[in-house]
Description:
By secondary structure, the protein is an alpha+beta fold. The protein has helices at 3-10, 55-63, 76-82, 151-157, and strands spanning 15-16, 18-24, 27-33, 36-40, 45-51, 65-70, 95-97, 100-102, 108-120, 123-135, 141-144, 147-150. Strand 11 and strand 12 (147-150) form a beta hairpin. The N and C termini lie far apart (32 Å). InterPro entries: Flavin_Rdtase-like_dom, NADH-dep_flavin_reductase, Split_barrel_FMN-bd.
Amino acid sequence: MDDRTFRNAMGKFATGVTVITAALNGEVRGMTANAFMSVSLDPKLILISIGEKAKMNEIIKQTGKFTVNILSEEQQDLSMLFAGQLKEKQNVTFDWVGDQPVLPNSLANILCDVYNTHVAGDHTLYIGKVTDIYMKDGDPLLFFEGKYRNLASHANAG
């Protein structure tokens, strides 16, 4: 099968949208990702998948820390920015929890220390041990078939 067929099939799985953040020497990096899942309750572990060529990969390797910011439907612009879909420069304000940057107004900020890694194909799977969580109420930003969605538009489409 070709790459497009594979990508189209993976796009049939509706996901939430996250921005992974990390900082090295005070410089913050972020990248949009929907390859995120919970792994274990005891200990509390999550998993993210980062492309081998992504700058984020090297930062996480060096720092051993990352944050998963689960985006609300009002944060589509942040998703697009960190996915490289917006060409104009924008200033992003981060909150800080210790030495870890978090995106304010996200539905959840999940702070992690790297627990384990596994290289799989052209990605590194990072299992993170959750060290802290911050949450707020709201509706999620969704992604399905290559397009952003929200709960209201999905409910009205049915």
